[in-house]
Amino acid sequence: MRLQRVQVPEFRVLKDVDITFEKDFVPNIFPIGSQNGGGKSTLLQLIFILLHCSINPERHVFLRNMLNGFTIDKDSINRKIATIEIWTGVKVVKLEFWSYRDSALKQIIKNIDVDFFIAQNETSLNFSTFQKNIYIQDKIIKAHQEIKDLEKILNELEIIKTVVNNENRHQLYLELLNKYNMYMKSYIKKTSVISVSVIEEVQINIQKMLNASHSNLESFYEDAEEIEDILENIVEFLHSQKLMYICNYSANKESEKNEALLCHIENLDMSEANTWLKELSQKVFLAAPTTQVFLFFSQENKKLLFKEQRLSGYFSDYYSLIKAAKNQLTGFFTYDFLAVELLIEAFKESRDRDFIEAIERGNYGNSYKALMNDLNTILGDKKIKLDADLSGVSFQFDINGNKIELYPEDLSHGELKRLSIYMWIKYHKIEDAIVLMDELEIAFHPDWQYQIISDIYQWSPSNQYIIATHSYELCQALTPAHVKEIEPKLLRQEAKN
Q1: Which of 173, 178, 264, 405 is most buried as measured by Cβ atoms within 10 A of its Cβ?
Q2: How far apart are CA 42 and CA 67, in angstroms?
Q3: Which helix (H) or strand (E) holds 469?
Q4: What is the pLDDT of residues 105-123, one digit of tens each?
Q5: Domain residue limits, the chain
Q6: Is the pLDDT of residue 339 over 80?
Q7: What is the SS3 assignment for 268-300?
């Protein structure tokens, strides 16, 4: 996969962006330069979120956050967000992301196919009908779980009734209350004796709840069947227009989800679109510093970046937020200056591979040794040392054969960052991917800013790297044709002197 072209008419600070990334360039590394405030970070985040999240409903919250504030002119039914062209190795697939008014579906259908429009239930011809279907399906899942839980409660109550000893019966009843508190919190008895008659009374009430749940489930299924019939026709119509519905969102905090995100897909059969977009989402990565303002966080969460740095406040909350986001966004990485967990896991994997090879071939492999050599090469005159129990790592400095133990502060941020990037790429086996990297040069000496280009190419040459940067040293490691700029353009070095 290669990002071949991106166009953004207007999104936040971005205006009239049109960048082409030549697929035949070697290395396939493209710095994007501008002065502060040019929107480099915004551009990378927009590309990442659109490609990484659109096909995955669990990630749509990040899309909604990203699009917060993106409104449609009052006289229009839609507004283009971005056009992204992807080179598959065989052809170019063009993805146009549009924001539509929720009610625009009526007009689209009516303009293209009047007969189809007349045949539909007009009250359901809104993009939010898709969201309504998701809501009902969620209700069905919850109703099934509720029925399952209530049936278990009835069965356990029946068993508790048979317990003769009052104390034992009381204890079992309390355990049941704690286990199913959400259903039984109104049946908490302060008395120390839970009689059979009390249990039977609870059983009657639980049975009423169970009957109501069954009735609700039946109603949900009826609603779902009706909506699914409508949506089946709508999806078929949208696909005929090469359109795919993604999600509804709110243009601002106060409004309902009255805008819908759609993708117009060219040069790809719509029957293949879901599978292809899933594959693409797994081939897009974003790396950025933790101090970056991530536009795909909610407004409340973004404010944490500017909170006073208290020991029990800002850092714990902010970094917990980033960690949670990484769990959902598998392609998201921050420049952690020492990725100890990745290091240890990588050593464990290489150890296990060597052991498997010993079993299969009779000789231990060299995966562990190769990893150690790679890491030591990166560290130069410093050497990495793994704890015998694989619980941690340390570093040593060799001076005339004398090994001196190093503390974390003895390694520069640049060294640790370089090591972290290497581990991220290698451990996650990032290959044949689109890797978006923001402010890669931070903490690097100018020489290393220049060197990092050859480093990442050497570490995984099959990737395409697109780097938002302020660094002239980094740009000079490539040809002028590799370097892309957006307004306001970088100041030339001679102009700064």
Answers
A1: 173
A2: 12
A3: strand 464-469
A4: 888 888 877 776 666 666 6
A5: 1-102+258-296+431-497, 129-230, 339-410
A6: no
A7: CCHHHHHHHHHHHHCCEEEEECCCCCCCCCCHH
